[in-house]
Amino acid sequence: MLLGLDPLLTPDLLHALAEMGHGDCVALVDANYPATRGRRLIRLSGIDTPHVLQAVLSVLPIDTFVPEPCAIMQNVDEPGAMPEVVAEMNAVLVRHGARLAVGIERHAFYSAAEAAHAIVQTGERRFYGNILVTKGVVPPPERT
Length: 144
What we know:
The chain is an alpha/beta fold. The protein has a single domain, classed as RbsD-like domain (RbsD-like fold), CATH 3.40.1650.10. Helix content is about 30%, strand content about 15%. The chain has 4 helices and 6 strands. It has a 6-stranded mixed β-sheet with strand order 2-5-1-6-3-4, with helices on both faces. Strand 3 (about 70-75), helix 3 (about 85-95) and strand 4 form a beta-alpha-beta unit. The longest helix has 12 residues, at about 85-95.
């Protein structure tokens, strides 16, 4: 156990996040997501996606060099809809000074998640509780 870290940050998750470089993505996905498609799977069963996103963003900077560093999976039936879980994830992003996540088509999301450094499967049961986050740079000490 370590001081100052969110307890949701398991050793496997911390290891995956520490390995990521600038521009790498992590996919946080819901319990229904076909997570076996990815390269590296970390399970956080029983925890909803907004709480996992909050924990991840407590240690991971969001990319500021790309126009859309975070993306959610669009609702298949209503691409412009804002499910409650998406609104909660966007609120977490705003608390961390990030832009709102953009919506991308379901299969485009699957492709992006498959290419992500890691997929973190949460216990989120609400539909569309999926988000891609692109890692930014960690500035030198004199710039923080």
